[in-house]
User: Fold this.
Amino acid sequence: MNQYDVSHLPAILFALLAATKLLGLLAQRLGQPSVVGELVAGVILGKSVLGILDPTDLVIRNLAELGVIVLLFEIGLHTDIRSIARVGGAAMGVAIAGVAVPFVLGYGICIALGLSALPAIVAGAALTATSIGISARTLSDLGQLRTPEGQIVLGAAVIDDVVGLVILSVVAGLVGGTALSISAVVSAASIGIGFIALALVLGNLFVPPFFRFIDRVEASGTLGIAGLSFALLLSWLAAFAGSATIIGAFAAGVILHNTPQRPRIERATTSLGLFFVPIFFAAVGAAVELGTLANRQALAIGSMLFVVGVAGKIAAGYAPFWISGRKLLIGIAMVPRGEVGLIFAQMGLATAALTPGLFSAIAIMVLGTTLITPPLLAYLVRSEAHTSDDLERPGEGGIDDLVSGTIEWKAIHPSASQGESGDTST
Amino acid sequence: MNQYDVSHLPAILFALLAATKLLGLLAQRLGQPSVVGELVAGVILGKSVLGILDPTDLVIRNLAELGVIVLLFEIGLHTDIRSIARVGGAAMGVAIAGVAVPFVLGYGICIALGLSALPAIVAGAALTATSIGISARTLSDLGQLRTPEGQIVLGAAVIDDVVGLVILSVVAGLVGGTALSISAVVSAASIGIGFIALALVLGNLFVPPFFRFIDRVEASGTLGIAGLSFALLLSWLAAFAGSATIIGAFAAGVILHNTPQRPRIERATTSLGLFFVPIFFAAVGAAVELGTLANRQALAIGSMLFVVGVAGKIAAGYAPFWISGRKLLIGIAMVPRGEVGLIFAQMGLATAALTPGLFSAIAIMVLGTTLITPPLLAYLVRSEAHTSDDLERPGEGGIDDLVSGTIEWKAIHPSASQGESGDTST
Assistant:
């Protein structure tokens, strides 16, 4: 009746929030990380089943993008850069092996199946990048993000994302018909690495005094909004420089990690995350087409890609041979591919480098690696708890839960009795 | 470089949040409600000045729509329906006079200026509906929302919105060439009124037990998300039934007002509001084209519409002659037109019922009424504080501040010591 209604967005968001919350709680009841419930909720809401949530819709895509920005900002806020730097060598090893092994295996399988070089390269590339959002959230759901292994995975996933962007720009050139150029590769790599280095150095110099200033003039949640604004700014700068928005959001969190204002910024971000983050996971789930499972050839190739996708990342977990630690846990945590793999597949399909069948095969690999990781990790962590070789590790899970949102709402809003609120009369 | 970046949305939101916060704080320093700073920030970010914020952009429109949904949900949460019912007669009087007087005056002026009937009707209609968001937020900034006068304004603005939707559907029919039909008017009116009545009755029966249940199974902010989901659901149902989303959001808040879970739902909503609500106000501001001020004829007609727009609503404040109270405050609080007036103007322009000049005149009226109200009200409230005739009214402003966000971040997160958080080890 009223032609000026904006859209059905309220209805879509209602369905999304209700379904992710419900299935997230159900997953927890079943001993699974709640992220698995949110992904499944997305699959159900997506076009495969109900057709309510369209992940290609412009508004949903942007809300999901804000969701992954908020998520990576939260993860960054909980990340002490020194603890990642301490495991930097191991993270680098895991990242490099985790890109090389799956790429070579995936490429090899496609060539062995008689595909030509270009589709084989795209399929191999889709196997390279771990989904940092899904990895970190799962580790956090299981209280493992702040263990040495969790920090290695986090570091490797960040490096991996930078490498993934380099590969993406190279593959985009290849499918577009450009020849491979060393200078393009070097430039893409230096932008990714340079952005993080520059952001951390300049950020640590100029940002803490700025937030100290904001803290003094504060009124009405200014600090929370300032933190989020900073994350949005770095996200955009990262994308503008040719890196990924999530790298910027993560860097913003890392820079604010050591400020005394962090707890309040964290609280504000967590509240926003409870709304935005499920949109991201549901959108990842909704991008999955269950119909592809009926395509036998796609299912066969997809299964093979899935196997090398899992095996390649698990092997990568053992790459830092010089460290002691739970290498199987590292490897499994690196398995989920998520949105980056889908971006490769969509690019390949759009440029006709991939047939619809091969596209579906990659989608099957993405779905499989994403959905198998949380239960596998949960199983691994639980079975470890019953063995003795890891008992020197104390029970963690406190602060991690802030990221995952698995704690009581009230618990994340500590006492306000510290004052400073001259303005209220209640 | 990366063709898969979603958009410049992070940069736009960064600019929006930073500018609204900065100018909001500046407005407060100058003794003005912060909403005036947010509106001015929107004007500056809009195409008139910087061209960063495009309020017609699909994503921005949807985020702004979410902003006004969150805002009206917050206002509803603070609204005791009984205190509005107590002033129901007065609110009805203000609403009816506030629609009729500006419409007749606006129509008359346009006819007197030699315009034909259709554009005169559109211009008159654009003068009718008060912007409930701007009114309620301004009253709340000034600590006046919970006074009897504040409740009358809130009630009148809700009725006004229903009436506005009726007029909108009638005018949409007229500019579309349909003849005026009594049955269409009656049906539009009954849908608007019927929706609220039905929502309140059914909601009060079924919603509290449901939220009691959620409270028991609660984990991780479920209550906050459940409240927001309910607001989104009613928003969509309202729009679906032919009423406005904001009516649904307001009704959802009113229904949850009496539940014991309200404080926690409120806290979650306030956190989201700090992000979403400024997007709405900035988008309203950005829809203003300062360039129209250079068009002399538009400026002349716009000034006349502005004068009758202000005078008509102030007169409406005196319509409930049988009550005692600050009638001037009621009238001034009803003055801002905001987004509804712009919707009329855009509809008129799109259907060629309005010339660009008359469109600009209406835009000037909207800008003027929106920007003049907060400082006028602030002046009135301050001058009242120095006179004695109103001293029986105690200093309010406690709970209202939750809506306006003018209190310290920490202060809105009361003690978590009440327990229930078995899940945290920090």
